Amino acid sequence: METERLYETHKNVSLKDILGHGTYRYCFFLVLFCAFLPTCSALNMKLQYLVSWLISYGMSQSQATSAMTAISIVSLPLCFVSPLFIERCGRRKVFILIAALCTLEWVFFGMAQLLHDAGATDLRFSQLLSVFGATLGQCAVNLGLLVMAPMMISEVCPHNTRATISQLTQVLPAAVGTVEVLLFPHLRSCLGAGIFFFFSACCALLVIALYRKVC
């Protein structure tokens, strides 16, 4: 009875209370999956290392910069149509699409790195694959990759759980993302394309998890 009264009040509940209540637990894991998607995507790595990746695939500094500009321009229209797209298809289906785009982004990066690791003499195909993958990732960002978790908190989380869920779903992905960015150059040098495909598998698991949660 005490637990039920707590759920009916506006008092913030603890993580233990959230995990012990079916509806709250569902909301928590749904938001957590959405919060971890930017961490598992290539977004953080691209911000730090995309230019160096493109240069390693044979581009000059100016070509890599121009490629990044082109990626931004190509994906820019999605910023304007994404609200209409979300309204027409629903937030949750769009979120699954975003997760799928993040998965494909890593796959294309992995194929580009695989050609590089294999010692291909003509790396233009690696350049095209990496630019195309980065474009898919930027499309995911413009569709709402970074606002998935806040939108889910406002949409599905009861008021008295929002503070606790917000704190946990911000701190955990941020901590993991920081470690991920620091270790990625070492992992790439040791594992090559394998680390790209590992992250694509992580994003694919999030696609499956989101599909099961929201469909």
From TrEMBL:
Alphabetized GO MF terms: hexose transmembrane transporter activity
Domain of life: Eukaryota
Segments passing through the bilayer: 26-45, 65-86, 95-116, 128-153, 165-185, 191-211
Subcellular location(s) per record: Membrane
UniProt keyword annotation of Transferase present: no
Keywords from the UniProt entry: Membrane, Transmembrane, Transmembrane helix
Name this protein carries in UniProt: MFS domain-containing protein
The organism of origin for this protein: Haemonchus placei (Barber's pole worm)
